[in-house]
Design goal:
- The chain is an alpha+beta fold and about 220 residues long.
- It is about 35% helix and about 25% strand.
- Strands 1, 2, 3, 4, 5, 6, 7 and 8 form an 8-stranded mixed beta sheet that branches.
- A hairpin with a 4-residue loop joins strand 3 (about 60-70) and strand 4 (about 75-85).
- The chain is elongated and about 80 Å long.
- It starts with 7 loop residues before the first strand and ends with a helix.
Length: about 220
């Protein structure tokens, strides 16, 4: 169990899954920069994160900006949307009749990604809710603004183990205050932090290449 002062931001796991160096620059070195993608995503989440919003549609209760945390994982944050569906074998909610199934929904700009960076963030939210509400959440949803569709994410053991493993690695890097180097990829060109990260400087060069450049520039 982690003490509250050691909790990390849950949303950081999406950065971590995308690029460990990006996560460290934001969450350890406190670096940040906006581009179109980050600004568009921030505006989308602004509309989803209305903490005063609560709606009932038939047997479904919808809440936004629900604060969540896990002492076991050592993370805290907010869910964009949590739906409570009335079912036979669910959990009781204070002040409401019946029992409910808990379903977190994470809003994202664009469309579904080839990697699982969004899925692990959603899984971390579900694991927090399970700990807080003493329930089981077998699946959750990612909603993409470009396609305007929900994608079902099955929260199986493989995804849960990957999520908890990443969070443990985040805690270790944060404890050491270590910003890792990474291999440059095409994704670096779209990263809002590329001017802070300077990925080209992380490229490993041989001594022979260094000497050749120095000779060519007349330094040696």
């Amino acid at each position: 169990m982690y003490p509250e002062e050691d909790y990390l931001m849950l949303s950081g796991i999406q950065h971590f899954a995308f690029c460990r160096r990006q996560w460290a620059l934001i969450h350890i070195e406190q670096q940040w920069a906006e581009n179109y993608r980050t600004a568009d995503g921030r505006l989308m989440h602004h509309h989803a994160h209305d903490g005063n919003f609560r709606e009932k549609r038939g047997d479904v209760i919808i809440t936004r900006a629900m604060k969540i945390a896990s002492a076991e994982l050592g993370i805290s944050g907010e869910c964009d949307v949590v739906e409570f569906h009335r079912v036979q074998d669910g959990i009781a909610l204070n002040g409401l009749d019946g029992t409910y199934q808990v379903i977190p929904i994470e809003y994202k700009r664009g469309q579904a990604k080839a990697d699982d960076s969004d899925a692990v963030q959603l899984c971390a939210q579900a694991m927090c809710l399970e700990e807080m509400l003493c329930c089981e959440i077998p699946q959750a949803y990612l909603y993409y603004g470009e396609t305007r569709r929900r994608q079902t994410i099955i929260l199986d053991m493989a995804l849960r183990e990957k999520t908890s493993g990443m969070i443990a690695e985040m805690h270790e890097l944060f404890r050491r205050q270590h910003t890792p180097k990474v291999k440059r990829t095409k994704a670096c060109n779209a990263c809002s932090l590329k001017d802070f990260c300077l990925p080209v400087l992380n490229k490993q060069r041989s001594a022979a290449e260094y000497m050749a450049d120095m000779l060519k520039d007349g330094v040696l």
